[in-house]
Amino acid sequence: MPILSIEFALFFLAFFLLYWAVAGFVSVQNLLLLAAGLAWLYWLHPWFLLALCLYTLIIHVIAQNMVFSLSAQARRAWLISGIAAATAILLFFKYIDFLRPLVYAGTQWEIMDILMPLGLSYYVFQSIAYLGAAYKRRIPALRFHELCLHFGFFPTITAGPIFRASRFKSIGGMQAGAAVQLLEPRRLLFPALAISLILLGILKSWVLSAHIDSHFVAPMFDNPQQYSAAALLAAVYGYSIQLFFNFSGYSDLVIGMALLLGFRLPQNFAAPFYAVNIRDFWNRWHISLSTWIRDYLYIPLGGSRQGFTRAQLNLLIAFGLSGIWHGSGWCFFLWGILHALALISLNIKELFFGKIRRRAYWQKLLGIVLTFNFISFSFILFAVPSLGEASDFLRALLNNPNSGHAAEWLWIAAVYVGILLYPLWAWCLQSIIALFKRLPPWLWFAPIALALQAMIYFAPEGIPGFLYANF
């Protein structure tokens, strides 16, 4: 039952009606949320349900011992144990397939195939944030079922955003945290905004992302030798746009669903391809992850408090680990190192020449173009399964002749025009919100039905997966 399916839409509608039928009874609503999340995981695979419950039990036991320990030394020991256990579990499932050939080499050993639990990467990060917040007494320790709901909140478990237990910046700049939101009375939040985000999320993650993949990305990455250099360049740009539409569309969709359930989730994207440098990009792309890396990797390593050289080393470590988090294999690690080196280069440049305080229009435009090209070419490491295939693709891009087909160059031009016109998305969102606000709620079904019918008509066959669910 993928989120982009009729079955899930009917499931969510029925759940929505039942959920608000018991409005005012937070404990009952939480039990319904927990039951829905666990049932959905069981439907996808019983192992996903078992893995979530076992993991939650481990973190719950550690958190309870940490919170109720009398000595600071014992509390710190429990915190370190919890972080170590969470990290070890994540690395085991992430890298068991990568390490399998090394274990097999020269032995008769066999490791059975183990399915990675759905959402493990995200609820491991949430658990580390929860342990840190509970250790600093920023939040109360959650009971087992509350913690299980926090980790298994069904809108976010597939691919985030990372739903921290402590305070974070959510829609409209409001400060909210999962621990507080799970315990306080809730109400329907910004229904016009929620519906608008859901519709735009479906458009981006299903219609636009899937068409870009089928026409401009998948064929070229599958057989780069058969296409011109222009077509391959279009595929490089196309993959970046596809990944953005797919992931930001998913984020819009789940943020909208959460608002309909009375929850605020962190903002995850802020026009990332408008970034004028790599630092600006990471302030705009997968914000819940980039801020997590900053707060739980970069700053604990020392951040910038221990001198310029140590700060650059901390960046290298943090982004190297970020690459490892995205997946097993050298492609992901190299991707993280490339982004770290880009940030380090920017820091060195600013150390000697200073920061640009005010940019002329041409400087902004040049920064956007250079940053977008760096991001797009680094994403090749996401699009292919091995460094060898990445090398083959780049070799074909450099050596294949140009066909001269106008469509390829038109697509490349359209990418840049689309980036410049991206503010129109905000205008579209505001226009849809204004439309719903002008209509009485009982008439909302009409524009919703028309929009869904149009998207079904123009969408390709099949339901696309969420790319970041693989990372």
Automatic annotation (TrEMBL):
Annotated localization: Cell inner membrane; Cell membrane
EC number: 2.3.1.-
Class of this enzyme: transferase
MF terms in GO: acyltransferase activity
Record has Transmembrane as a keyword: yes
Metabolic or biological pathway, per its Swiss-Prot or TrEMBL entry: Glycan biosynthesis; alginate biosynthesis
Top-level taxon of the source organism: Bacteria
Membrane topology label: Multi-pass membrane protein
Transmembrane portions of the chain: 47-70, 77-96, 116-135, 188-207, 227-247, 254-275, 323-344, 365-388, 408-429, 441-459
PANTHER family: ACYLTRANSFERASE, TEICHOIC ACID D-ALANYLTRANSFERASE
Protein name as annotated: Probable alginate O-acetylase
Species the sequence originates in: Suttonella indologenes
